[in-house]
Amino acid sequence: MLAAYRPGGRRLRERVRLTDEQRLDWLRLIRSDNVGPRTFRDLVNHYGGARAALDALPALARRGGAAAPGRICPLAEAEAELKAARAQGIEFVALGEPDYPPRLQMIDDPPPLLAVQGERAVLARPLIAIVGSRNASAAGMKFAERLARDLGAAGFVTVSGLARGIDAAAHRASLATGTVAVLAGGHERIYPADHVDLLRDILADGAAVSEMPLAWEPRARDFPRRNRLISGLSVGVVIVEAARRSGSLITARMAGEQGREVFAVPGSPLDPRAEGTNGLLKQGAIMVTEASDVINAVEPILGRAIEPPPVEEPAHETPAHDSEPAADERSRIIALLGPAPASLDDLVRLSRTSPAIVRTVLLELEIAGRLERHGGGLVSLV
Questions:
Q1: Three-class SS state of 84
Q2: Are residues 17 and 98 in contact, defined by beta-carbon separation less than 8 angstroms?
Q3: Quick check: do 119-302 and 323-382 share a fold?
Q4: How many CB atoms lie within 10 A of CB 317?
Q5: What is the largest CA-CA distance in the chain?
Q6: For the chain, first and last CA: distance in Å?
Q7: The CA-based dihedral angle spanning residues 105, 108, 113, 115, taken in that order and rounded to the nearest 10 degrees
Q8: For residues 56 and 43, is the Cβ–Cβ distance under 8 A?
Q9: Preceding amide of 101 cis, omega within 30
Q10: What CATH number belongs to 119-302?
């Protein structure tokens, strides 16, 4: 039913839009307990649609060993969030719809629904992320401003995380040419709070995006999730300043995992704020001293067409055949899992069962809150 998550395949001539009823089902599913982007994908692909997946959640949790079913987002709550969002000019754009950012949908865990406020058209233009230290130097912020301004003049849109320091400098310098703020919390919980005015200026010609509920207060673990969106939206990521343990290095790592270009601005070996960027250069990042360094590197990439996975969302969702594992199959698969991450291929081979059966058991465990997903498709027991 939903092939939107499967890379490759033909490009559909006409990409579909969800009905409002389907959009509410998607919102309910992604807002339910233990359902993240990867789990959402697996549930919808397995059951043939979000409505059928919602109906299956209690049985999955029970078979996965949960003492009680996790919370399923009520219809009234999803309706209220959708209504509140639209009242503020925020739209929930679904993966596979025409307005969904083309590069973002190619990552391993794209948000099923992206809450977008502002000028959605900027998300279809070439995007370059500029991020760096919150405790930035004057020289670092000046360079970020110059780089953002020059890239904007060349037709690029700047993406950043609305943080203090480098992020804010990059946003401010590209207000006239378009910039995208990626939020760690919901649209009603801007962080830092003193950047509310900056966000208002951004929305005049740019956009803000979030995968979190409107009133979600950002927590520490939400910032790495946001960082994967910053890099996922972009064709390349420029790190201007980053200390050895900077969150910007997480963005750089995710960019590399997503196949994006990673750029770094060199700095003084005596400045701890340059330790991370200089380290990236040693690891093979492209050195940036002017905008042309970025432009020359990404132009060949922009010349290649983006082939998004096709979307085949039916007008009426029909549950797929529920291939419930036999007791011995479930036991063999669970026995192979532990705190050390394992791959799906290894679980299939060692359990001597089909990939479909293994995926079903993993869904059961995840909905029961017993499974943790890692990068590279690895999983472990909580």
A1: helix
A2: yes
A3: no
A4: 20
A5: 63
A6: 30
A7: -80
A8: yes
A9: no
A10: 3.40.50.450
| Residue corresponding to tokens 């739209």 | 91
Whether residue 145 contacts residue 174, with contact meaning beta carbons closer than 8 Å, is answered with no
Matching CATH number, 323-382, of 1.10.10.60, 3.40.50.2300, 3.90.1640.30, 1.10.10.10: 1.10.10.10
Give the closest residue to 99 by CA, choosing from 121, 83, 129: 121
- Taking only the tens place, the pLDDT of each residue in 272-290 is 999 999 999 999 999 999 9
Tokens matching residue 319 = 């549950």
Are 241 and 132 in contact by the 8 Å Cβ rule? The answer is: yes
Asked if 77 and 31 count as a contact pair (C-beta separation under 8 A), the reply is yes
- What value, to the nearest 5°, has the Cα angle with vertex 179 and ends 173 and 181? 110
Give all strands of the β-sheet with 342-343 in edge-to-edge order.
342-343, 378-381, 371-373
Quick: pLDDT tens for 184-238.
999 999 999 999 999 999 999 999 999 999 999 999 999 999 999 999 999 999 9
DSSP characters for 274-309?
A: GHHHHHHHHTTPEE-SSHHHHHHHHHHHHTSPP-PP
In the chain, domain spans: 1-86, 119-302, 323-382
Rounded Cα–Cα distance for residues 240 and 71 (Å): 42
| Token output for 230 | 């910053």
Exposed, middle or buried by CB within 10 Å (0-12, 13-18, 19+), for 350?
Answer: middle
Query: Cα 152 to chain center, whole Å?
Result: 24
Measured CA to CA, the distance from residue 133 to residue 148 in angstroms comes to: 16
